[in-house]
């Protein structure tokens, strides 16, 4: 898919999303899938349709921070469940991550949801620990930012959903360089509407795990002692519809599908449906609170990609 085609169809995301079919995704060809019906879902808070909660980070103190794309804001849920705006930004937030003294936000100066040309508007925003915007630096080499993960001290890896790159970012020096570029991280060339390539990114004991929404894959990139990638990305599995994910204590991968379901990929390659219905267009998931492996917080977009007008929710998923 050429970049011009990608951007020209971005404007139709809101109106033709209901036409997405599973043929747009690389379907799983691994072991037969099964369903685990033991999980429960609880609504923690909800926002009117039209909001778009995309990325989150659970804090060590128990707070939950999450991005709201169309409102250009970072929201916070306190330990007691109260929610409020933590930070109002100068651009549309795509993901956030804690850094020394505050937070780094990957953002876009233009809105994909409004059909604007996002290429050339990618940037990083610096916040202090209280959410005040204290800096910003452009990322002209990046096409469309998405998930981030910390690789080391002052080393953040940020995926690019269009170019097949994972970028290495130093928040202090504001330097940006390509950490790896590979076709497996790019979106499909023949898709009919905008669906991101590389999307979520997390560290596991054996390397870096990356989801590709367009191709429906999870891949592993092994990392050397020098912090550089060792070889090309290795395909872990074709899992079908996937957005962001979390690596559980046993190494299995719990992933959102940007639909009503949440699934898990075991170390042996078995795919299990953990939540069969009610995820509401889930975009991201993480343990809540941290340091346990049975309760997870999940955010969604109110099923906007499927033409629905559901409430936009923060959900608690308990896996028994």
Task: Describe the 3D structure.
The chain is mainly beta. The chain has 2 helices and 25 strands. It has a 5-stranded mixed β-sheet, with no helix packed on it. A 4-stranded antiparallel β-sheet has the order 2-25-24-23, with no helix packed on it. A hairpin with a 2-residue loop joins β11 and β12.
Physical arrangement of strands within the biggest beta sheet: 1-22-21-20-19
- Extract low-pLDDT stretches: 1-30
Q: State the helicity in percent bands.
A: under 10%
| Rg (C-alpha, Å) | 18 Å
Gap between N and C termini: 42 Å
The proportion of strand residues reads over 45%
| Helix/strand/pairing category | mainly beta
| Helical run tally | 2
Largest sheet: 5 strands, mixed
Order of secondary-structure elements: HHEEEEEEEEEEEEEEEEEEEEEEEEE
Coarse shape? globular
Number of strand elements: 25
Chain-averaged pLDDT: 90
Keywords:
single chain, 320 residues, mainly beta, five-stranded mixed beta sheet, four-stranded antiparallel beta sheet, 2 helices, 4% helix, 48% strand, globular
In short:
This protein has 320 residues and is mainly beta.
What are the SSEs and their pairings?
Elements: H1 3-10, H2 13-16, E1 34-35, E2 40-47, E3 53-58, E4 64-68, E5 73-77, E6 83-88, E7 92-99, E8 102-108, E9 122-128, E10 133-138, E11 145-152, E12 155-160, E13 165-170, E14 175-181, E15 198-204, E16 207-212, E17 217-223, E18 229-238, E19 245-247, E20 253-256, E21 262-265, E22 271-275, E23 282-287, E24 295-300, E25 312-318
Parallel strand pairs: 1-22
Antiparallel strand pairs: 2-25, 3-4, 4-5, 5-6, 7-8, 8-9, 9-10, 11-12, 12-13, 13-14, 15-16, 16-17, 17-18, 19-20, 20-21, 21-22, 23-24, 24-25
């Amino acid at each position: 898919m050429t970049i011009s085609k990608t951007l020209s169809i971005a404007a139709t995301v809101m109106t033709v999303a209901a036409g997405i079919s599973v043929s747009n995704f690389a379907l799983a060809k691994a072991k037969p899938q099964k369903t685990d019906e033991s999980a429960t879902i609880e609504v923690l808070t909800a926002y009117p349709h039209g909001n778009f909660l995309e990325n989150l980070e659970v804090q060590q103190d128990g707070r939950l921070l999450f991005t709201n794309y169309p409102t250009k804001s970072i929201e916070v849920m306190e330990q007691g469940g109260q929610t409020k705006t933590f930070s109002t930004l100068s651009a549309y937030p795509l993901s956030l991550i804690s850094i020394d003294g505050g937070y780094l936000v990957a953002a876009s100066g233009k809105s994909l949801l409004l059909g604007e040309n996002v290429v050339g508007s990618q940037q990083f925003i610096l916040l202090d620990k209280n959410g005040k915007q204290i800096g910003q630096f452009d990322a002209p080499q990046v096409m469309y930012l998405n998930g981030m993960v910390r690789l080391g001290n002052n080393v953040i890896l940020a995926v690019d959903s269009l170019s097949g790159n994972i970028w290495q970012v130093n928040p202090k020096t504001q330097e940006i360089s390509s950490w790896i570029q590979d076709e497996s991280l790019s979106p499909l060339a023949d898709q009919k509407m905008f669906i991101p390539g590389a999307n979520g990114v997390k560290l596991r004991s054996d390397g870096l795990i990356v989801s590709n929404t367009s191709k429906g894959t999870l891949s592993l990139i092994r990392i050397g002692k020098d912090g550089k990638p060792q070889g090309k990305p290795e395909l872990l599995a074709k899992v079908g519809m996937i957005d962001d994910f979390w690596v559980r204590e046993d190494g299995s991968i719990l992933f959102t599908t940007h639909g009503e379901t949440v699934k898990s990929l075991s170390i042996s390659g078995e795919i299990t449906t953990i939540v069969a219905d009610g995820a509401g267009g889930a975009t991201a998931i993480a343990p809540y609170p941290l340091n346990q492996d049975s309760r997870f917080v999940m955010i969604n977009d109110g099923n906007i990609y499927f033409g629905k007008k559901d409430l936009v929710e923060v959900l608690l998923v308990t896996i028994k």
